[in-house]
Amino acid sequence: MPANPAAGERLEARRTLLGEGLEIRRALPNRHRRTVGAWCFLDHAGPADFAAGRGVNVGPHPHIGLQTFSWMIDGTIRHRDSLGFDQWIRPGQVNLMTAGRGIAHAEESPPDAPGRVQLAQLWIALPEAEADREPAFEHYPELPLLERGGFRVTLLAGEWSGERSPAAVHSPLIGLDLTTAGDARAGLPLRADFEHAVMVLEGAPEVAGERLDPGILLYLGQGREALEVAAQGAARLLLIGGEPVREEILIWWNFVARRREDIVQATRDWNEGRRFGEVRGARSARLVAPDVGEFRLGAGAA
Ligand code: MN
Fold this sequence. Notes:
By secondary structure, the protein is mainly beta. It contains 1 helix and 26 strands.
């Protein structure tokens, strides 16, 4: 391992729309990188102000083979799923939905008032042995909070610095949120056997000596035992990492699988009303799975 690891690889997030018009930056999957550890999807939505009745309005849609990990930064969203869970998520909280063999959910902003929304939604590919497990949903109202060199650090997932996130994940991985209102500088210990990446959500902090803007994912690879992070003004960034996934994972629409036929079957089952159950109470229309013939990397996920 070089004493001074080379600068990371800068990957540009793709700008797209979530539901009916909230702009998001989709950093994973990327044309140049599918996964960082078992993290296989990373959307940064907002921050955005919306009028009454707008905001996040993602109607019922299915997932298989993954966990959705929603990290709320500004505003509130209501999650409803086919297991019957009906859960508001607020700033500083995480919703973790395990799709396993199949679940459906809807995510909606409060309908009656204007508001502000910002969140990161990530997916974690389940390891093959867990991919068909029973679906589950968990809400974490609080996560471990630490302070390092002026950064407020939230341990989203995994273990770090003697703390452990309660989030129930099935692969060795880490997720940290770092935020500061002003000057901050910290050396973050990392596991050298993990690969890591950082995405800036706000401000223009420096990571490993590189100044980053929102919408850039800096892929850092494996072999780092520490990472230098600094900010000269308000900033927020996400650090994700984990053991590299060596097997090929297919990501299509809202499905993660290892075999194309599993995606074809999930598409049929959803569009024909089987397997996934009903999401009750959602205001937004049920989404239709597109034809698998249009298979494209990360197309149209919700
Ligand atoms: Mn979803």
